[in-house]
Design brief:
alpha/beta, Rossmann fold, 3 domains, eight-stranded parallel sheet, disordered N terminus, 3-phosphoshikimate 1-carboxyvinyltransferase activity
């Protein structure tokens, strides 16, 4: 027998360490197989217990790899209905039960398992039914049960279909359901599955597992790759603790399913069912809608043996383009799995959108075998942000793809070789562009192999002609070492290469991002600007080191400096034609609001700004006038006609809480948070938590009346008629923000113990008063599943170790995770950099810059 964990409405734990939430309606008692050793080791499975699970389809019904070309996976258009149920399918050992719990909790859907349905209605498990009544009888009853489940639970449910989904009669049911619902295949490394199941390490076993995977792919229309938890970078706070605090131990132990949870939540957001990834909260518009966006080219063959933890994919580029070969010699049965794994690895290590491109430079590949289209639709299953389709495809083939891609932008692509002459001046090129737009392409890309430098000038004229008559974004450039200026002038998704990963196709002769940026400054497309941090006591600030390191890494000729003053009027001396923006520090965050021409909704709600952006005069009709955060008029000098205020403190808190909140503490309607303090950072914390969906917040501050004012302010904002500031759902019951008077007060009655604690009081000396040694009172520190503690005061990095950090360290074994104060500063600065420049911040470089400055500061202090 296999080991199982019983799931019911009263179950408090699961194999993944995730608490099962009580859901509305009946919850079926499920016998979930325990998770693999990578999640939690309970017991070793015996081969006899699981072998027949993968032999449920007779050999005559098992498709070969060749047959999968004639029987493609479902290509159905996923419905836009936000309430449509989601079906999860996968082989035994892929992690279905854990992902089902993550999805059901995040979406607030009911969780229905097909095996539990059988247990509920027939009082026996699958193996018992087969043993008692035979395999044929089981196939009939499982098909009938699945049909009933799909019919009765078509909305707001997560349906888990295990091995029974691979039964011949059930496959047709799920494929039909996929025409109106998302059916997600959970994929995983076969050796990991084999080890979990306790099967022998033989080629025959792997072949059987592979056949099960192929069947899952046939009946699903989306695919998620379950990467090993270990294949991720170490948490930033843990790295900061080791390097900055002089502590060798890891004060934040690895959390069960932490990276896997973040991966899957991002995948769900791509299905348009949860908020977008936190890294783009204040980010600019999509790359296809911005001037001079770039994409990092990454070829599938180059990434085969790449250690992604050693490659910096977040280095200023706006997207990552995964290039997949479609040459027959490179078509292998495992290629699709390799594509799925690589794309998911890119997502884990980069927050940039993914562009999926299948090479098709040989028209012979568009044959009846449709190898090219087969790879194309496989990419669509992974929900990339962009996908290309070769314009040599027929009108019907292009329309089919554009109608199927409800969540992916289509780029109509065509490559012109040297054999053609005067490509850019050929009227047929305009017809190709119009055809792509008519067939539903969101972007059009033309690439020409240049024969001379004159091709660049012809390309620029063609771009201007298209821009004068169409709003559809155009990517147009030439390749070749003698013709590169078209790449510098190309307005959208210019490809660049990693210095560490040069393109394997020398004919492309791509520039690196730094080469491209230097060319923009050298040709006066961009001009050097000056940025500052302005405040009363900022001589200690680490921000200049962080921003200047980022400018240098991206080859931007900007500079960032400290401007310290006790008089706000001195700020006006900084604003000139080359002013790029400013960080605002205490005590001016609220005072400066009166001098601004416009502010973001967040800054209005928080009543404070920490980021200023100049508004420049632009030509009439320029799209930059509509959005102050648009990149069109950034990195360019000129007369300043106004100032725009933003607040990035809240985004830093939002990001850090989301990053470290464990699956066991996924935010629900009952989740509670504690905020210590009532100043500007406390208001930013309240705003961030409300945006995350936390509806129960408790405040404590030494000045009780000040905390009450903060609570009243946000309660009024939240309950304001027709307010959508915090993305309230129609069923939202409102928020509860309470204030406790003293540290000896009991935790408010009726509220769950806090799983999020944000401390905003300073950890440094104030005047003659010693630094407050705050610790969480024990009666407020009783969460059984731990939680996240954030110390957000940016002055606290002057203290080597605070009592609160020590308290979190002592409770690490109980699930408490502490976020280093410097990580909050890095995230706040990262958001500022992206607002200032319009380019994604080089996170690794900014982190290294802060650590270098911090260690130098403390070396001086130690010498003194």
């Amino acid at each position: 027998m296999t080991d199982t964990v019983v799931l019911s409405s009263s179950s408090a734990s699961s194999p993944s360490g995730i608490k099962r939430r009580r859901v509305e309606g009946p919850t079926y008692h499920a016998s979930y197989p325990v998770e693999p050793p990578a999640y939690r080791r309970f017991a070793t499975k015996t081969p006899d217990a699981v072998v027949h699970r993968y032999s449920i389809t007779p050999k005559s019904h098992t498709p070969s790899v060749r047959e999968t070309h004639t029987q493609p996976p479902s290509r159905a258009r996923t419905p836009s209905d936000q309430d449509a149920s989601i079906v999860l399918v996968g082989t035994k050992g892929s992690g279905l039960s854990s992902f089902a719990v993550i999805a059901a909790t995040a979406l607030r859907y009911r969780l229905i398992d097909t095996e539990s349905w059988l247990v509920e209605h027939y009082r026996m498990k699958r193996s018992e039914y087969i043993k008692t009544r035979g395999l044929s009888a089981y196939r009939k009853v499982s098909a009938k049960a699945l049909e009933d489940i799909l019919h009765q639970h078509g909305t707001r449910c997560v349906l888990v279909c295990g091995p029974e989904a691979l039964e011949p009669h059930c496959q047709a049911l799920i494929r039909t359901f996929a025409s109106t619902h998302p059916v997600v295949m959970i994929n995983r490394d076969l050796p990991v599955i084999r080890e979990y199941l306790g099967l022998p390490d033989t080629s025959e076993v792997l072949q059987i597992l592979g056949q099960g995977r192929q069947l899952c792919r046939r009946i699903s229309n989306h695919e998620f790759y379950n990467l090993p938890e270990s294949e991720a970078a170490s948490p930033l706070s843990a790295e900061l603790c080791r390097n900055l605090r002089g502590r060798g131990e890891l004060h934040n132990p690895p959390q069960l399913l932490q990276n896997v949870k973040q991966d899957f939540l991002h995948f769900l957001s791509l299905l348009a069912r949860t908020p977008p990834r936190t890294g783009s909260l204040l980010g600019p518009a999509p790359p296809s809608e911005r001037d001079f966006s770039t994409s990092l080219l990454l070829r599938l063959e180059d990434s085969a043996d790449t250690d992604f933890s050693l490659v910096d994919l977040n280095r200023g580029t706006d997207a990552v383009e995964l290039v997949v070969p479609s040459r027959p010699s490179q078509q292998t049965p495992c290629q699709k799995d390799r594509i799925s794994r690589t794309l998911q690895m890119i997502r884990r290590h980069s927050e940039a959108p993914v562009l999926y491109h299948v090479e098709c430079q040989d028209p012979g590949l568009l044959s009846p075998k449709q190898m090219y289209l087969d790879l194309l639709y496989h990419g669509l299953r992974l929900i990339p942000d962009f996908i290309t389709i070769d314009l040599d495809c027929t009108d019907r083939q292009i329309r089919d793809l554009t109608s199927s891609a409800t969540r992916t932008q289509i780029i109509g692509h065509r490559f012109y070789s040297m054999s053609r002459s005067s490509v850019w001046s050929d009227p047929a090129l305009h017809k190709d562009f119009d055809r792509a737009v008519t067939l539903g392409c969101h972007v059009v890309r033309f690439v020409c192999q240049a024969k001379s430098a004159s091709e660049d000038r012809a390309c620029a004229l063609f771009q201007a002609a298209i821009a004068s008559r169409s709003k559809t974004p155009l990517i147009a450039y030439t390749t070749g070492i003698q013709s590169r200026s078209s790449m510098v002038l190309n307005p959208c998704l210019t490809p660049v290469r990693q210095p560490e990963l040069p393109s394997s196709d020398p004919s492309l002769s791509l520039l690196t991002f730094k080469q491209l940026m230097r060319a923009k400054f050298s040709s006066f497309i961009y001009q050097p600007l000056h940025f500052h941090i302005f405040g009363a006591s900022i001589d200690y600030s680490l921000s200049p080191m962080m921003h200047n390191a980022a400018f240098e890494a991206l080859a931007m000729d900007h500079n960032y400096s400290i401007k310290q003053s006790h008089d706000l009027r001195d700020f006006n001396t900084l604003v000139d034609d080359s002013f790029g923006g400013s960080s605002i520090s205490l005590p001016f965050k609220s005072e400066i609001l009166a001098q601004l021409d416009s502010t973001s909704e967040a800054a209005k709600a928080i009543q404070a700004v920490n980021t200023l952006l100049p508004l420049r005069a632009v030509p009439d009709g320029d799209k930059a006038t509509a959005d102050p955060l648009c990149r069109s008029h950034k990195n360019r000098a000129g007369p300043v006609v106004g100032l725009y205020g933003e607040n990035t403190d809240w985004t830093a808190i939002y990001t850090c809480v989301s990053r470290y909140l464990s699956p066991a503490n996924t935010i629900q309607s009952s989740s509670s948070a504690l905020i210590v303090g009532a100043g500007g950072m406390a208001r930013a914390s309240v705003y961030a938590l409300l945006q995350m969906g936390v509806r129960n917040i408790v405040l404590w501050n030494r000045t009780h009346a000040k905390a009450i004012r903060v609570a009243e302010h946000f309660t009024h904002l939240y309950n304001e008629p027709h307010s959508r500031l915090f993305n309230q759902a129609s069923t939202d019951q409102g928020c509860r923000i309470e204030v406790v008077e003293t540290l000896n007060s009991p935790w408010p009655e009726g509220l769950a113990q806090p799983t999020i604690v944000v401390c905003t009081i300073p950890a440094h000396q104030i005047g003659d008063a010693p630094p407050p040694e705050f610790q969480i009172p024990q009666q407020w520190f009783q969460s059984r599943t731990g939680g996240v503690i954030i110390e957000v005061d940016k002055l606290s990095y002057k203290s080597a170790w605070t009592p609160l950090l020590q308290q979190a360290h002592d409770r690490a074994h109980r699930g408490w995770i502490c976020v280093e104060p410097l990580e909050v500063l890095i995230e706040q600065g990262r958001a500022q950099f992206e607002i200032f420049t319009g380019y994604p911040a080089p996170q690794r470089v900014m982190k290294d810059g802060i650590m270098e400055k911090y260690l130098a500061m403390h070396a001086v202090q130690d010498d003194n």
